Amino acid sequence: MKPIGYIAVAVIAAAAGFGIYQFGIAPRVAVEPPQAASQTAPAEPSAAADESGDTALPETLPDFTLANLEGQPQSIRSWQGKSMIVNFWATWCAPCRREIPLLKKIQADHGDEGFQVVGVAVDFREDVLKYAKEIGIDYPLLIGEQDGMEAVTKFGRGSLGFPFTVFTDNQQRLVLFHLGEIHPPQAEVMLAAVRKVNSGELTPIQARTVAAKQLAELPRAQE
Known about the structure:
The chain has 223 residues and is α/β, with parallel strands linked by helices. It has helices at residues 94-110, 125-135, 146-153, 184-198, 204-217, and strands at 8-14, 20-24, 36-41, 65-68, 73-75, 83-89, 115-122, 141-144, 161-162, 164-168, 174-179.
């Protein structure tokens, strides 16, 4: 068994009312309750390919393998032919926890049309297993510590906050990237954009442009 990884966290206070969390590496015994960071999150989550102006997102869902709930290694590309909703989260992240009921509803309501939610927990395995059982997470989970953080870097954005979610079409091409908690109106916009890509009505790049405009027009969520 490999040594236990190291994770430390800090809360990012968000100007728009949603919080996102930054993560780093520190001895587990030194982990303290999250403190508010001095950084400020963007006012609106991004659906753009490269809103930050640094490295663009990959065209397709990057392949990585983490342990599933049963402890077996599983690739994120296991769900061939599905439109993926890959949600990166952690048990210590309050907006991540708030988001989970919506993700469960998306899976229940839209699984039959080919959408597949997969949670990627970058956290200690025992904490994830306990929390998933307590709240009844019923979509697949992949779990990693250091290897989970390495999976994050495959999206070309360096160190990101939590939660963040990527949406793919049914060919596993990346359509949308969303940093921060997803609210129901935003989810509807993003699901609709993926449907238009699946139908051939829009390319992924066109869908990002359309979705970004629609998301910007939504009223801000009231926390």
